[in-house]
Structure formats: structure tokens, C-alpha cells
Amino acid sequence: MEKFRPNNLQELLSFNQSIRRDGFSPYLAFFRGQINDWPIKPNITRNPKLTDADILEKEKIFFENYNEETLGVKVLQHFDKEYTKYAQDWHNLFQAQHLGFYTRLTDWSQDFNTAMFFAIDDESETYLDIDGIIYLYKCPYYEDQLINFQREEDCRFFDQNPFDLEKSYMVKHYSQFPDDFENYAGEIRRFRQDGSFIILNSEDINKPIEKIPYISQYLTKIYISPTVKAEISNYLDEGFKEFIYFASTDDNKTEVERIRKITSESNNKIYWK
After folding, report:
1. Res 250: pLDDT
2. Tell me, what's the pLDDT at 124?
3. pLDDT score for 116
4. How many angstroms separate the Cα of 42 from the Cα of each of 126, 168, 185, 201, 230?
């Protein structure tokens, strides 16, 4: 894994500009921001007392009951669910992750500003004097590491169970825009954050992503010093946080707080009892 330590914001932005994004690039670039140098692991693994078997059993129970009636949140129906076996299961995973429920997904973005934001998003101010991290994943486009649901040939994965994959993948999806799109907070967050995900297979669920060989060789780890953090904070628009958290109006803020309470109670009940 390559490493990079920019001395200032300009060096960081220049690094971003050097990444290929043209149609002939052999990879797609994905980014992940973290306020601390912790392992890249899904939030479903946060309780260290749970074994892999415990996690998978609890995950199964949660998603068997994942619907609007049991959760109290809007669940967007996938437009292709009538023609494919598992499209709704994939879609439920994506929505659950951005609503704050524990899943086997880790968040990535193709938007560098989003990654920079999450490298400095420290409401408790616990990590002000500690390096943040931005990961760059140059996911090979023509190797078996990317599920891009914007490619017609990759839609075959909608007939494959996302909880029974042979390996871990980067997943790039599209957003859906029904007439009442504004009612689906999870989908809006994913759209605004340009969200993609790494989905871990069951065997890798407790393994740090940066230690999975077929992924780690394509990672670059960027260290964001406290000085650069401060520069990023001044660089990003004042309303950026509210925008990507879907809390740009008073009504939305109320809904975000309601969902946050629901997800916290659900996660505690299932994964911490």
C-alpha cells in the first residue's frame, strides 16, 4: 500500500487532480475519509465480543425484518425488484448503511470533498491533534473487484444473494428518483455523498479491508495532519455538512434526529445486548 503525507492543502488538492478519471483509465477512483487511523471495518463489527457467527446471525435477523412497518423509516422499493431475485436486498443494504443501521458495508465516495469532510468531521473534538486519513482505492475496472450496477452486464448480481458472495467487492450503484424522493433520507444521503460501498463476504467480515491482499495493493493511504485539517475546514463550504447529511432545513433536521434515534436503538438492541 502506497502512502502520502501532504504538507498543505494545495499538495493534497494537486494529488487529487493527478488521479486519472478519463474514460480510458484502467481503474475507478474511490475515496474514504476517517478522523483517525483506525482499521477499515464495517460498523457491524463494532462489538468486539461478537464472533463472526454471532454477527452473521444478528445480521440475518435484522434484514429479515427490514421494512417500513418494523423500522419506522421510509424504505425505497427498487424499480427492478419484480424481475430480479435480490435487487431489493441489495437496495435495502445500501439504504440501511446511509440511514445508520449496522451493515457489512463500508462507505466510500467518488467525491474527494466528501472524503476530506469525513477526515475532519470530529464533533467531539477528540482527534483535533491527531492525523486524519483519506484512503484512495484505485479499483481495477476490468478485473473481478468491481460491481458497477451502471454497467448492464453487472446487473447479473441482482440475481445473486449479497449475503452469500465468494469475495469482497466495491459496489457502485445508481440513485432512484421517485416522485416523493425527498422522503427517503438514506437514498438522498447516498446521492449527495456520491456514495459507493465495499461489501465484505462472510469470511472477511471481521478482517480489516486494508489487509485483504487483492484490495490493499490498490490502496493509497493519505495522512491528514492537524494543520491540513484546519485548511480543509476553511476550504469546504460552510453548509457542506448539512448538505451531505440531508439536514438543510429545519424539517429535515427533525427527521434526521428521529432516524438517528431509531437506528441507535435498533443497533443497541441487536448488536450490543
Report:
1. 63
2. 84
3. 97
4. 21, 12, 20, 11, 27
State the angle between helix axes of 112-120 and 226-235 in degrees (0 to 180), rounded to the nearest 10: 120
Task: Kindly report, residue by residue over 166-199, the tens digit of the pLDDT.
Answer: 999 999 998 888 888 777 888 888 888 889 999 9
Cβ neighbors of 100 (< 8 A, separation 6 or more) are: 259, 260, 263, 264, 267
DSSP SS3 for 133: strand
Q: Which residue has the cell 470533498?
A: 113
**pLDDT tens digits for 84-111?**
999 999 999 999 998 999 999 999 999 9
Q: What is the pLDDT of residue 248?
A: 60
Which amino acid, 50? L
pLDDT at 218 exceeding the cut of 90: yes
Whole-angstrom distance, CA of residue 161 vs CA of residue 6: 41
pLDDT for residue 23: 85
> What is the rounded radius of gyration, in angstroms, for the C-alpha atoms of the chain?
18
Q: 98: left (phi > 0), else alpha (psi -120 to 50), else beta?
A: alpha
Helices 185-192 and 87-99 pack at an angle, to 10 degrees, of: 80
Return the amino acid letter for 161: N
Beta carbons of 105 and 198 less than 8 angstroms apart: yes
DSSP assignment of 135-174: EEEEEESSSTTEEETTSGGGGGGGGS-TTS-SS-EEEE--
Terminus-to-terminus CA distance in the chain, angstroms? 37
Give the Cα separation of 94 and 107 in Å (integer). Answer: 10
Element (H, E) at 120: helix 112-120
Task: Determine the Cα–Cα distance for residues 172 and 197; give it in Å rounded to an integer.
Answer: 7
C-beta separation of 174 from 73 below 8 A: no
CA-wise closest residue to 196 among 32, 81, 19:
32
pLDDT of residue 205 exceeding 80: yes
